[in-house]
Design a protein that fits this description.
By secondary structure, the chain is an alpha+beta fold. It has a single domain, classed as Gyrase A, domain 2. The protein is 38% helix and 22% strand. It is built from three helices and four strands. The chain has helices at residues 9-16, 38-55, 83-93, and strands at residues 23-25, 28-34, 60-64, 68-73. A four-stranded antiparallel β-sheet has the order 1-2-4-3, with helices on one face. The longest helix is centred in the middle third of the chain and has 18 residues, at 38-55. The termini are far apart.
Length: 97
């Protein structure tokens, strides 16, 4: 499977219109989630891990505090944002937590 090219600025702006829970931080998009408790935060990480593995696109995820999760998406081999990031963000947003 060929890897997607970097997204244009116009495509990034358009895609971000459909991702209201995400913010752009340079060459990444980021979402912060406050889970109900520690176990819920870990469960969310595991659910995202399955989505990421199926997509062959792996985010950086950090659990901090006792119930907070920070997810950062970027296409590392392109050093920026591609359609893979926006597709995975949409799938993450569909998870029930």
């Amino acid at each position: 499977m060929s890897r997607p090219q970097l997204a244009s600025e116009e495509l990034i702006i358009e895609a971000m219109n459909y991702l209201p829970f995400w913010t752009r931080e340079g060459g990444s998009i980021v979402r912060e989630i406050v889970a109900a408790d520690f176990v819920s935060a870990v469960g969310l990480v595991n659910s995202i891990a399955i989505l990421a593995e199926v997509a062959d696109h792996h985010p950086e995820m950090f659990i901090y505090g006792w119930n907070k999760l920070r997810i950062s998406l970027s296409t590392h081999d392109q050093s920026g944002l591609t359609e893979l990031d926006f597709e995975l963000a949409k799938k993450i947003d569909k998870l029930k937590f």
